[in-house]
Amino acid sequence: RKHFRPELLNRLDEIVIFDPLSHEQLRKVARLQMKDVAARLAERGIALAVTDASLDVVLSESYDPVYGARPVRRWLEKRVVTQLSKMLAREEIDENSTVYIDAVAGMNELLYMVTRNGGLVDNTTGHKSDFLIELPNGHNRNDAAQSVKKMKIVPDEDDDDDMP
């Protein structure tokens, strides 16, 4: 209120003050943005698994206190999606693969690992699912791959209703 003239303030109906986002809130934003990337990969039958440590790297590299969480999407497109695209072009990733993204210990870098035949295509029906696998820090990649293989993939019919 002390920055604006009273004439301007009188024209406003309400003033909403936004507090800075907490680290956990920022992590939720990064997770939501990562789910968008996972949905794009799921169209190809590829699962995406990320750790909290990898989300922390994304935040440390993209977060700006002035802009808040807005740069997160741009950073993911520039770094993560570009890297995944290169891996697809080099045929390191194919349908029914799982891509694991983790943080390199002691560095602000992401580590990409691929497991084939552990993706999102149900072998019996051929249906594809789209979800982001969230792995706790200190995860065991083999355990995660087994859990993906054991998941029942059910097509979601509500998705068609959401389209304009």
Automatic annotation (TrEMBL):
Protein known as: Clp ATPase C-terminal domain-containing protein
Q: Which GO terms describe its cellular component?
A: cytoplasm
Biological classification of the source:
Eukaryota, Viridiplantae, Streptophyta, Embryophyta, Tracheophyta
List the GO biological process terms: cellular response to heat
GO molecular function list: ATP binding; ATP hydrolysis activity
Give the source species: Colocasia esculenta (Wild taro)
Q: Sorted alphabetically, which keywords does the UniProt record give?
A: ATP-binding, Nucleotide-binding
Q: Known Gene3D superfamilies for this protein? A: 1.10.8.60
One Pfam family name is: ClpB_D2-small
Instruction: Please name the InterPro entries in this protein's record.
Output: Clp_ATPase_C (IPR019489), ClpA_ClpB (IPR050130), P-loop_NTPase (IPR027417)
